[in-house]
Amino acid sequence: MAENVLFEIGCEEIPARFMPGLITEIKSKAKDKLSSMNLDFSNIYSSGTCRRLVLYIEKLAGKQPDCTEEIQGPPAEIAFDQNNKPTPAAFGFAKKCGIKVEQLKIRTVSNRNYVYSQVKKKGLSSEKLLPQILKEIISSIYLPLAMRWGSNDFKFIRPIHWIVALHGSKIIKFELAGIKSSNITFGHRFIKNPKRHIKHADLNKYKEILKKANVLVDSDERRDKISKLIKKADYYAHLDKNLLEEVNYLVEFPIAQKGKFNPKYLSLPKEVLITSMKKNQKYFSVIDFSGKLLPKFILVSNNSKNVVRGNEKVISARLADAMFFFNKDRKIPLKSRVADLKKVEYFQGLGSMHDKVERLQKLSLYIAKHLKIAEIEHQKIINAAELSKADLTTEMVFEFPDLQGVMGREYALASGEDKDTAEAIFEHYLPRFAEDKLPAAMIGTVVSLADKIDTMAGCFLIGKIPSGSEDPFGLRRSAHGVIKIVLEKKIDLLLDEIFNYSLEVYGNKEPSNIVKQLIQFIAGRMKVLLVDEDIPSQVAEAALANFNDILEAKEITHVLNNNLKNDWFLGIAATQSRISKMVKDIKRDQVITADFIDQCEKDLYELYLKVNWNTAEKINSGDYNGALLELSALTQPIEEFFKKVMVMHEDERIKTNRLALLKTIEKLFFSYSDFTKLQV
After folding, report:
1. What EC number(s) does the entry state (predicted)?
2. I need a surface site. Which of 129, 187, 211, 644 has the fewest CB within 10 A?
3. What is the pLDDT of residues 255-288, one digit of tens each?
């Protein structure tokens, strides 16, 4: 009979940043484990708070299904003698399997006969399996911080204090980290008598019991509650998504309260106030309909007592520090800080931040000239690149690293720099995350591209290439930023040229292999972006096979996707696939017309020359659909060629020339896309 399973691990407070991952992990590991154990279930739910991780398995099957297991025994020539009578080896194997020797069967494996037995195996009950299953689920979870607590060897992210494990109304008995499982959970730490008994594995009743004990265990319900409480406290409160997610895993039963700070601190840049409240105190700022910051804040806590007064004192001290940093930093002009960047290391092996700034100036100017930006803007671009990292030497950015660029803009204006240059200092960091805005002005756009390209080129140069989920230098973010900027601004940029120049600025004289790696890396991020836009993976791979131009790749991808179901398009894919199989080991692509002996091959070559010219014209004018139609003109003549001409001619000279012709045509197809990636 199917029963529900409730599993709760209660522990000391887990850092909020780890909770979403742990909740996802426990659900994923449970699904994998139950599937591997051949145990059916209806649904799996996971959630948690900072003090508990919860797993609920709905309608878990009462037992594994019965099955027949086939066991391989000794070779047949050992199990049976020359008269086909069973030997002691056969009797021993049959006894081991619990069957009669007459029930043994023979199977052929790798050209040799073996004795087999078929054993009917009864499925084990869930009740017997669950103790080990739950222990293995927890042990398999990825822990960003895994530590031993106490005298046992079990590792977990925080010390475990209680374990609830129920199968229906029965306790699943086991021990983990020295803690025995039970049906006892604990409510909010601030209430009297927090101990609560759970009589049955019923998710709704479990939630209700904890709610009465001042714990909202469901993370979605808690998040929604926090949002409503904040808006109730002040309609103009700014619901920062990242802060909301963090606070959601800091509290178990949220209480929102409103505080205020001295309006004199509003003279600080708005971003400074918001960042100080968010990073240090986890406060939500209050911004009116016009975007003006108000001298108020909303705090969310576990404590129902009025703690506003104490928090107002704390934020006052924090903002006083920020005011001190701001006034002190402005005493030194931003340009005077550039020399101090020599003391700031960029990455080990890539020099100082001052070295980076010098590279940015050269690379920004190169991009500006490539984009034919008016020369009158060149000096502003060079100036913005020079000042782009100067705020890293300020007290404010040292205290709040997230304000880099923001403070650069403020201090540039305070130093008398023009508005365009100041804005570019801020914009060159954009986009900072997936949904962030892009640089609005061309000066910021150029320096932003230069910064990201320099970062990627430098890291690849010293071998710091992202692998798996590891990306400590944010190179995927840099690649994403370059792609988004190029697509949004419709910038014509050949990646091999820009990366070659960037590596030359680094002093690398032989960059070809690194450039290929960089282009492949950008292609990988481009594929992710395209697949996120519901482009089939195979279409993205086909379009990116000859990747060097972000804009062109995007256009070709959409042309391929739009024509995916057209017969004439499928004909191109089938034709290239056939040609590629024939010429996969052929290197020669030089066609000698004097070696043609058949009119069909002459006609095909003439058509190739015409299509090659027309395709190039269409691509150069941005007509990628027209270029694809030009390529389609080759499919029928190629089919005729295969019917009338023997490619593998007995004369080696003729055969080699015909293969060279096909190789040449393959290169033409490939210059547009690798159609062999498409399943036809």
Report:
1. 6.1.1.14
2. 644
3. 999 999 999 999 999 999 999 999 989 999 999 9
